[in-house]
Amino acid sequence: MNIFFVLFLFTQEAKKSEHEIGEEVIKGELKYKIVDPKIYLQVSLNPFAPLDSVISKEQYIFDEKLYSTIDALNTPILYLHSEYLRMPLVARFMYGSIALFIPRFEKTVSSWELVIIDAKGEVVRRYAQRGMPPPVLSWDGRTDNGEMCNMGEIYNYVFTAFDAVGNPTRITGRAYKFNGVVYEEKGSTIIAVSANALFNENSAHLNSESEPYIEEIANIVKEKFKKEVVVYSYSQSEELARSRGEVILNEITKRTVLQNKAVSTAPRFIPGLLPKYSKIEIVVQ
């Protein structure tokens, strides 16, 4: 053991003399007991909370003073039922973009034009620009005048690209139809849906396909509500407009917890309006 120790020192000394700056590596073992307590985090997750919310029939109590004075930022929390009641479903409304166009050209394009036309062949929206088109073109459902297009109408599009000498390449799209759209305007959320998607023809009775639309409408109201909801019903018949508006109002009331004065309906009687252009508009503020 003593001989080994001497040789070890000699080796280290000889190695150290070869360099101005040396390093030594010391290896060994040391027992150390950790006495610091581990951090314990208890996750407060109740997997039965969504079910409890429904079974307990959780609701809130209001009075007139509360409705008129409460801070608008807190209103959705206080006035609406549990967030768990926002049922997950497949969206039937268009949000933001009605249609996306993705043009691809192998050759250089000098200029291009995208025209969206209705069932009558009339142009409702035109996009045009020099040079190559952008990677994606989005149509928000509005006309060139900024008005929202009719729900339930059939639309088509024609995309034309011109080369350097003016030769056109024309691409005609397929017919496109949308029954509902959700958009923002002047601080309000507007839900517009074709009456034919909700009601039987010339009737105020809901059809067999209306349930998913109404559930989605209720979800949007729960998410966006601040102070009031107004249901506008457009029809060629004054009585039909009134009846349909009341039906939708009742369906929203059944699915949300809102004070009576926070929800109202306003019929919009338009003589000569074609039945296919009849619609329901819910304005959420």
From TrEMBL:
Protein name as annotated: FlgD Ig-like domain-containing protein
Taxon lineage: Bacteria, Bacteria division WOR-3
Gene3D superfamilies: 2.60.40.4070
The organism of origin for this protein: candidate division WOR-3 bacterium
